[in-house]
Amino acid sequence: MSSESGGRCFRAAASASNAQAAAQERVPPEATAALGNALQHRLETRYDLDLGHQVSDFIFSDPEIAANLRGPGGRSACEQVLVCEEAGTLSISVFLDAGVLARLQRRDPLVAVDDDALDALGLIIEGVSHFVCLVWHAQHGRSCTQLELELQAEIDKFTLMHDLLREQRGRVPADLRQRLFERVSFPADLPVEEHHRYRDANTWAARFCATLQHRFSDRLDHPDAKSLLRRFFRWAQPQKFAWMQR
């Protein structure tokens, strides 16, 4: 797909639509689209955004197409947002491994979050978060570092899971933050610079989310918590880190 927005053209990579058609039958494209769009809607509502694009138009799960888009030497992963910009056109593809999506189809996390599939839910949230962050920054003519993308994805992962669990169970497990930020490991084949970036994003997101919980008594629906999250999303990286270092 291709459409003009804010002076820049956004499109899915040419092969992404074919990837959806080739998805395995046990991962229905419509179910993947509905989940991705619902998560995006939650983020747009939280941050008061109107992107004009749906992540479902950019999601695919064909590993061969992902390899072609990554190019020679590109590292594979269960979730990747692949970006290419040429002549004012930003091409975005959101790759999500079919196995991850299959785990999410066993129980719709919008209805009942499966504790045994939190990692799979986290991966699709990361992909949607990257998409939202990239499109918003591009529409506003702003650059976005890889560290910013990862930091925002970690925060979005925690806050969306927090919202879903509270809505569904009336409470949030006391160890949610520990599960997401402390009981983690990174792929052994990560390049040093990339490993440091993921580690730093994890560390700073944990600090930010702990502050949110403590300041607002674990009520992320508090008006001041919502305001802080909206402002944080819009701040440039130096302002974000200045706030977290206070």
Which range best describes the helical content: under 10%, 10-25%, 25-40%, 40-55%, 55-70% or over 70%? Answer: 55-70%
Portion in strands: 5-15%
Distance between the termini: 43 Å
Radius of gyration equals 17 Å
Mean pLDDT: 86
The string of secondary-structure elements, in order, is EEHHEHEEHHHHHHH
Low-confidence stretches: 1-10, 12-28
Largest sheet: 5 strands, mixed
Class inferred from helices and paired strands: alpha/beta
Count of DSSP H/I helices:
10
The count of β-strands is 5
Gross morphology is globular
Multimerization status: single chain
Question: Describe it for me?
Answer:
- This protein is 56% helix and 11% strand.
- The chain has helices at residues 16-21, 29-47, 63-70, 98-105, 118-139, 146-169, 176-181, 192-215, 223-234, 237-244; strands at residues 2-5, 8-12, 59-60, 79-86, 89-96.
- A hairpin with a 2-residue loop joins strand 1 and strand 2.
- Helix 5 crosses helix 6.
- The model is unreliable at 1-10 and 12-28 (pLDDT under 50).
Keywords:
246 residues, alpha/beta, five-stranded mixed β-sheet, 10 helices, disordered N terminus
Topology:
Elements: E1 2-5, E2 8-12, H1 16-21, H2 29-47, E3 59-60, H3 63-70, E4 79-86, E5 89-96, H4 98-105, H5 118-139, H6 146-169, H7 176-181, H8 192-215, H9 223-234, H10 237-244
Parallel strand pairs: 2-5, 3-5
Antiparallel strand pairs: 1-2, 4-5
Helix pairs in contact: 2-5, 4-5, 5-6, 6-8
